[in-house]
Design goal:
160 residues, mainly alpha, 5 helices, 0% strand
């Protein structure tokens, strides 16, 4: 019976490692697709800003148009900062960079439209290995938390 339990433990640990490894392997691809979508939002926001500033609407003077365009200008600056930070980030730092500059609306849309890829570059494969190690560690932590506390009786003397 202990043999089956050990085999099941090994199987579940491998499944945790494989799932975490696959997820980590896809991380850089998700970031790339997010950055591409972010670039599209940036171009769209820049166009909307230019159209608002340059619009000739009867009864609106230039100062009023500029005041209306201020939120758009701020949005352009926000998206540009995030896009530039991701573009300049080292691949090893991109997960931390995206965490600092993430737009949850754009990230959600990226996730819904996400297309998995099979990146075979060294960095992506390294992420996969790190994810596998994390998965095994996570499984060991789950087991440790679920395991009842054991008392070690090695060398203990029982007095009656």
């Amino acid at each position: 019976m202990r043999w089956i339990a050990r085999k099941l433990d090994s199987l579940v640990g491998t499944l945790f490692a494989a799932a975490a490894g696959l997820a980590a392997w896809q991380l850089l691809e998700f970031i790339q697709q997010y950055r591409q979508r972010l670039g599209g939002h940036l171009a769209e926001a820049q166009l909307a800003y230019r159209q608002t500033v340059g619009a000739e609407v009867p009864g609106l003077n230039a100062a009023t148009r500029q005041a209306l365009a201020l939120p758009q200008q701020e949005r352009v600056a926000e998206i540009a900062q995030a896009w530039n930070a991701l573009a300049a980030a080292d691949p090893w730092l991109q997960p931390f960079t995206i965490a600092r500059h993430i737009d949850f609306g754009i990230a959600g849309a990226t996730f819904r439209a996400y297309q998995p890829a099979l990146p075979l570059d060294l960095v992506s494969l390294s992420y996969a290995v790190a994810g596998m190690v994390f998965g095994w560690l996570l499984w060991e932590l789950v087991k440790a938390l679920l395991r009842p506390a054991r008392r070690h009786r090695h060398g203990a003397v029982v007095v009656r």
